[in-house]
Write a structure and sequence with these properties.
mainly alpha; 9 helices; transmembrane; LeuE-type; cell membrane; Threonine/homoserine/homoserine lactone efflux protein; membrane
Length: 207
């Protein structure tokens, strides 16, 4: 019983995964916004999103994601919950000036788990990701014995690639954020970052 598909299939999966991960979406934009706040906040958000990928993998493996496809009402509930959550994060960022001088990135009072937890929720509360994994993983895992184990390994691969790419996005945007903070644009960062999250929430709600 093989834990991995054949080499050609696995490489094809990795290529498809990289192409999909590089496509801009809510996860990338959220990490970008958090990275502007601070490098550490962005990196923690990236790992939170990768953890959300693992949860979606488990849901697809257990068949829970199929419930979203079979129950339109459940799909809408999750979708709107995700939209409200993203928008609330944006409003909170603007009200608390999270992207200005008060950003919590590296100080001793930094919230070490907040950005990670938010990243998990941003990913988990996107039902399109759940349906994507339900359709994407089985095609590469096949139906031979051991398909469940292969789905888990493939999902872990996708999560690792996600963490690597979004980590790079976080570091790069963190450098941009540092430059902006050092300039006269500091007071506008909270509006830009918060506005981006509110826009993401609205986009998720109307999709």
């Amino acid at each position: 019983m093989a834990l991995l598909p054949g080499p050609a299939t696995y490489l094809a999966f990795c290529a498809a995964a990289v192409a999909l991960i590089l496509t801009p979406g809510p996860d990338t934009m959220y990490v970008l916004a958090r990275g502007i706040q601070s490098r550490d906040a962005g990196v923690r958000s990236a790992f939170g999103i990768a953890t959300g990928v693992l949860l979606h993998t488990a849901a697809a493996t257990l068949g829970l994601a199929a419930l979203l496809r079979a129950a339109p009402a459940a799909y809408r509930v999750v979708k709107y919950a995700g939209a409200v959550y993203l928008a609330s994060l944006g409003v909170q960022a603007i009200r608390n000036d999270e992207f200005g001088d008060a950003a919590d990135a590296d100080g001793p009072t930094a919230d070490a788990t907040g950005s990670f937890r938010r990243g998990v929720l941003v990913n988990v509360l996107n039902p399109k990701v759940a349906l994507f994994f339900l359709a994407f993983l089985p095609g590469f895992a096949g139906s031979a014995p051991g398909a469940t184990s292969r789905m888990l390994v493939l999902g872990a691969t996708y999560a690792t690639l996600t963490a690597a790419y979004l980590g790079i996005v976080a570091v790069a945007s963190g450098r941009v954020g540092s430059l902006l903070t050092a300039s006269t644009t500091t007071s506008r960062l909270s509006w830009v970052g918060g506005g981006a999250m509110i826009t993401l929430g609205l986009a998720l709600a109307v999709e």
